[in-house]
Amino acid sequence: MTVNRFSISAVAIALLALFGAQTPAQAQSGPLRIEITEGVIEPLPFAVPDFVDEGGAGEYARNIARVIASDLQGTGLFREIPREAHIARVSSFDSSIGYEDWKAINAQAVITGAVTVSGDRIVVKFRLFDVFSGQQLGEGLQFAGTTQTWRRMAHKVADAAYSRITGEGGYFDTRVVFVSESGPKNQRLKRLAVMDYDGANVQYLTDSSSIVLAPRFSPTGDRILYTSYASGFPRITLMDVGSLRTQSLAEQDGTMTFAPRFSPDGGRVVFSLERGGNSDLYMLDIGSGGLQQLTNAPSIETAPSFSPDGSQIVFESDRSGTQQLYIMPASGGEGRRVSGGQGRYGTPVWSPRGDMIAFTKQHQGRFHIGVMRTDGSEERLLTASFLDEGPTWAPNGRVIMFTRETSGAGGEAALYSVDISGRNLRQISTDGAASDPAWSPLLP
Amino acid sequence: MTLLPKALLLVAAFGLAACNNPDRFGAGGAGGGAGGAGGAGGGFVDTTGLGDPNNPASVAYFNQRVGDRVLFPVDQHTLTPEARQIVVGQAQWLMANPSYAVIVEGHADEQGTKEYNIGLSARRAASVHQLLISQGVPANRMRTVPYGKERPIEVCSSEACYSQNRRSVTVLSVGAGA
Question: Signal peptide span per the entry (chain A) (predicted)?
Fold first, then answer.
């Protein structure tokens, strides 16, 4: 990350070194901007005063500001200037913000807003200001919905601010489907759940009567694919999120199925089908029920993931003797190997931008989450631990969430996120143990 | 290993797992499963008396004397000579006791990704299944189920436990060919 003003980070650093307490802001000219690149300087200071209550807003005016601040600060790219340090008071949404007061505390970006609540209806307005340029950054925006969705309003404000300052898409107004875990290691109980990306608003989708694994959202977020043992045997299962109705897919005598993933158009499912001990990849057309075999090898082929344009599939296979990553056309075939380093590579997931593949790597008794280009080059390991597994991409392709499990008899799984630069590793707060996260697209 | 058939039948009476291998999911088995696979929601509860381990026709005899499980080296699914011998013994017992059906479970240790381990444990279960078939046990008496790393019996994170978790377990239930 380079803190704003072209990419003159080196100059900014030099000035900082020379003048000590001198703020980086004074080295700036041009519009407010964070370039999310390799060289870190420091997070961009911002302020979010409590939103103005324009009628009936009560606690929402403050809580919405807090969620926005938490979203931005959580990226590691921004640093909130605490409210105690604010000089200016924002008492009216439409009055001028007094740039000098914000400059004085080195707030480079300020988000102001207002909230109106009547009945169960909430309206949230906001503006984003570039303090050192002395102007508003982008238009003011207004979001409206039910009071139940107040956190989504806050996430949408934060997404807009993030997007305007970084030039990247946001990822705060999203959900994550995951597996909620309880019970000891040898009697683990698992249930499907969804939550906001930051761990709030958990909703359970199944009870814990049977094992569930590796859920995935459909491209529109209204359906979930997962592996269920409800029949006693692993079966790929489709759930409608609204009604919670489930349906077993691709049932064939003498076979078991697992590791299902949607095609980018949501109409097909690529998955592993096991027969007589051997697992191969198959494609199912959900509408017609048509089944097509994609691989035909005596090795284990699993963990498939479509390219965003739907033309290719990356998957893992142990055909070489160890788990490695391969890419084949979506119509099937041999595939070309893409992983080339030492160790075992699994659970490849194609990035939403199409340029990278995230994976799990095992090497010398450690697990890593990593990313590489789709040709296998520029491999970069982002994490290392006893057991890291199963990356999922934020919709903007900048952040990865995954499962980290601790070792030993009391070992437990938790969800973590990390930037694709390897920075900003943090645990997602969940109610109890959790595994197998999968990110939704940005909500509409 | 001491088996307590009465206690187990009591467990069955409470509608919990009525599997006849009491330790296959560790003690208790509340999360284990009706229908042999971890699902109170999914299947029927079949109750099988374990009997006297000194009675060669008892389930207890099969589990303890014949041996209901075989172990595998890291990331392998080929049966070792010792494992082959146990499975051949299982086949002989099953041929002599045709009223039992079988679920062959495959399992993996935690050193691997979940979905790969399902594939690996499917291979392990299939190795046992195929040998049982080649020894004459009718295929229609048997099913396999891969559990991956979902159901360890030992919980430490070292080879002492991993070696016990890399297993295939042959689970009996009444009702062959049903």
Answer: 1-27
